[in-house]
Amino acid sequence: MLLVYTLRSTTTNDYYDDDYDYDDDDDDDDYYDDDYDDDDDYDDYDDDDYDDYDYDDDYDDDYDDETTTTTTTTRLRRRLRRLRRRRRRRRLRRRRLLLLRRRLLRRRLRRRRLLRLLRRRLRLLRRHYYYDYYDYYYDYYYYYYYYYYYYYYYYDYYYYYYYDYYYYYYYYYYYYYYYYYYYYYYYYYYYYFYYYYYYYSFYYYYYYFY
User: Fold this and answer.
1) Region Disordered: which residues (predicted)?
2) Disulfide engineering: 70 pairs with which of 41, 66, 164, 204, CB 3.0-4.6 Å?
3) How far is the C-alpha of 97 from the C-alpha of 90, rounded, in Å?
């Protein structure tokens, strides 16, 4: 029985090499160095690949169903691999958090510097161009009102001119009717004299015949 058990265990565990040292973490520690500082390595890294996946479910539920061929060494090796994965995930998370924090600090510092520079420039501009700006401002309004003064003055004479024009126009019109009136007046007198002419002539013939 012991011979069969050893044969079975050796045939089923050929995949895992006993000469390989699975506990050696030097390679992983060198690769994930905490002093490594590069902002662009983990920008597009996604946590969902690891966070949403539970590695324990793949193995823990099957422990009771395993046959007698699985030895304690394989179980230990699997657990060690799971622990290593968890360590890697934790390291990556810490590193990403540190990188994000550094970036936020840098952005804040840049914004503060820019704000300081802008404030200084604005102060200088106010000191140098404050009085010049107001000088041009008042000159502009001075010429503006000056222009409107002459503008209304011009319209005053313009309407005055038209007033005189209409006045003379009606004056002329008035004289026109005035002459017209006299024309009829003389015309009336003309007939009046004409009438008297016949009247006197009638009387003349009347007295003459009598």
Assistant:
1) 17-70
2) 66
3) 11
Q: For residue 83, what pLDDT is reported?
A: 92
Tokens of 155: 């319209």
0.70 cut: is pTM over it?
no
For 48, what's the count of Cα atoms within 13 Å in the CB-facing half-sphere? 1
Q: What is the pLDDT of residue 111?
A: 83
Judged by phi (left if over 0) then psi (alpha if -120 to 50, else beta), residue 170 lies in: alpha
**Of the candidates 109, 86, 105, the residue with the CA atom closest to the CA atom of residue 97:** 105
For 83, the token pair is 């622990």
Place of tokens 């390679």: 27
The answer to whether the beta carbons of residues 42 and 68 sit under 8 Å apart is: no
Find out whether 81 and 20 touch, Cβ atoms under 8 Å. no
CB atoms under 10 Å from CB of 95, counted, come to 19
Half-sphere exposure at residue 68, Cβ-oriented, CA atoms within 13 angstroms: 5
Q: Residue 180 pLDDT > 80, yes or no? A: no
| Residue 99, CA distances (Å) to 3, 33, 61, 89 in order | 57, 14, 37, 15
Q: Residues with Cβ < 8 Å from 63, sequence gap 6 or more?
A: 75
Lowest mean pLDDT segment, chosen from 87-96, 126-135, 144-153: 144-153
Average pLDDT value for the chain? 59
